[in-house]
Write a structure and sequence with these properties.
41% of the residues lie in helices and 17% in strands. With 338 residues, it is an alpha+beta fold. The strands form two sheets. Strands 8-7-5-6-9 form a five-stranded mixed β-sheet. Strand 5 and strand 6 form a beta hairpin. It is globular and about 55 Å long.
Length: 338
């Protein structure tokens, strides 16, 4: 009976169209009032190719991007309709991220701070997310061309075209610019919806410990479930994964993802036969957050290059024998930035 129930959930395992069904173009207009202001730019074949490594803008995509950025007050988060280029920063050696981290770590040095591993990992992902803010067409091209995820999705879309009629043919690829909203790491959560029911909720950046998330867990859950009841009737999907940002003055839907094993399940597992999978499919509703700092977070959750980079700071701090006041004390402008 359990296996039969699992097979009834479309998309949970092998469904090649699951990602496309949750592309931004299919849900943004329905919940526009509850999500981040966005511009959807459908690309022709030539424009889609311009996003691949070594690609060239042979048309007017740069002009279209500049116009869209101007309409979003000059700062945006860029992604495809399917996925974002976060791997370019999390796994690459982005010069802007190196500069941001260098500035932050120098600030810690000047303050005499020896940060914990949990604080350093949080700092890395905060800086990496900040580095995804683009303000020019050139920054869009550099970021997208540096992402394997973007390359993978563009090539898949171009490879699935029924017939090639020329470079101006619609590619099926959308470029999305979203008005920049500062979302602190501790404010993002991932929900799992199966057959219309919110079965599970999890802290998105599960590898970071935030005392405020543990303390405010009940109020976070209420705010998210209240918003979910408003957006649920507007969405035409039955099963999906939904990301939320719980900000001081509002709760936003950040993204809709497929209810599919390829979608990350922080603090849960899609593994067949597991208790976690049964929760994701059937409930009872379960909300999980990280309640203690993870051991060795740099080794487990940072790419090797970045782990070495961050360990170098830690080693220098340990040589000085300094204590570790909270990072917030060293960054009084954090609240304004976020």
């Amino acid at each position: 009976a359990m296996q039969q129930d699992e097979e009834e959930v479309v998309g949970v395992d092998e469904d090649p169209l699951a990602v496309q069904r949750c592309a931004t173009r299919w849900w943004y207009a329905d919940i526009r009032a509850f999500t981040i202001r966005s511009v959807v730019i459908p690309l022709c074949v030539a424009e889609a190719r311009a996003l691949l490594p070594g690609g060239q803008d042979t048309g007017n995509l740069a002009k279209r991007l500049a116009m869209a950025l101007e309409g979003l007050w000059g700062r945006a988060f860029v992604k495809l309709g399917t996925r974002c280029p976060k791997d370019a920063l999390y796994e690459g050696r982005d010069e802007r991220l190196l500069a941001r981290l260098g500035d932050e770590l120098r600030c810690l040095h000047r303050g005499g701070v020896s940060a914990t591993d949990n604080e350093l990992v949080s700092l890395f992902f905060r800086c990496a997310n900040d580095a995804m803010c683009v303000s020019t067409a050139e920054e869009v091209f550099v970021l997208m061309r540096s992402s394997f995820r973007v390359s993978q999705d563009v090539k898949a879309a171009l490879g699935s075209l029924a017939g090639y009629t020329g470079d101006r043919q619609p590619s099926g690829v959308d470029l999305i610019l979203r008005q920049w909203v500062d979302i602190p790491l501790e404010s993002k959560f991932r929900g799992f919806v199966c057959k219309g029911n919110l079965t599970a909720l999890a802290q998105y950046y599960h590898f970071c410990y935030f005392a405020s998330v543990v303390r405010d867990k009940a109020s976070i859950q209420k705010r998210i479930t209240d918003l979910f009841q408003q957006v649920k009737p507007l969405l035409h999907h039955e099963s999906y994964v939904i990301d939320f940002a719980v900000l001081a003055d509002r709760v936003l839907v950040v993204e809709i993802k497929p209810f599919h094993y390829s979608t990350g399940a922080p603090l849960f597992s899609w593994k067949k036969g597991s208790a976690d999978r049964q929760i994701l499919l059937h409930g009872p509703f379960t909300f999980r957050v990280t309640e203690t700092a993870n051991p060795d977070p740099m080794e487990r959750h940072l790419a090797k290059f970045w782990a070495i980079f961050m360990r170098a700071y830690r080693g220098e701090a340990q040589k000085r024998g300094k204590t570790s006041p909270p990072l917030r004390a060293v960054h009084p402008n954090d609240a304004a930035r976020q």
